[in-house]
Amino acid sequence: MANINERNPELGLDLATTQRTQKIVNKWIMDRELKSLDIIPQLYAALFNMPSANTVLLSEVLRTTNAYLLGSENTTIHPEMLRTTMYRYTDELDQKLAALPSSPLKHVEDIVHTAAWAYYVFEKIHPFTDGNGRIGRMIVKKILKGAGFRDIIFHDQRWYGNQHSDHLDALSRTDKTGNLSHVELYLLTALRNRYSENLTDVALREEINQVIDKKHQQIANSTEKKGKHEIWLGFPVN
Fold first, then answer.
1. pTM (predicted TM-score)
2. Statement: residue 22 has pLDDT above 60
3. The domain containing residue 139 runs over which residues?
4. Residue 10, phi then psi, degrees to nearest 5
5. 2 CB contacts (<8 Å, ≥6 apart)?
6. Contact, 181 vs 215, CB < 8 A?
7. DSSP labels for 198-225?
8. Which terminus in the chain has less CB density within 10 A, N or C?
């Protein structure tokens, strides 16, 4: 039996924390009526083992200082704008979650686009003092698994002593270009790695590969930087 203090290389968490957060994510996946405005602060509270995790409010856990992201040209959203911005984000996220199909076949691009949008926008808002990357990846898991995909594994090469991180690179490229295809491509590649070379996966694997080729082409054809408001109109104007 694994020691309860053993680290989980996927999220960098101890197993007790992983169990707490995974229980909430699983509940969120199973119950489509749950609201992200309630679930996201619960994930934060579970991540940091806060008391009364089931009743914590978003306003109670939002950061109160500015945050600066490595590789970003600007600070993230000012604390005074966080509450309004997060209310708008969670409302739009819930609308997108409600529209998700229950099976990924023939819907790969739309589902991955939703996951990439949710992940990038959440990380750009950066609502918490700590844990934003981990909670953002839990949101991605909710979207992909809720739409019928297998659970993807986030590998961060920095956990193994390297300087490189594929998912942080994808976020940074999107930040610099305004092209969400970079995050979509990262998620698509992670999904492809979860489907083995067997007959039952052929159609879905082929669709994933087709969308990967499409995203590579979109990136190659993109020569003009887009503003972040083309990804989400809810970003406050600086």
1. 0.90
2. yes
3. 7-62+74-230
4. -70, -45
5. 15
6. yes
7. SGGGHHHHHHHHHHHHHHHHHHHH--SP
8. N
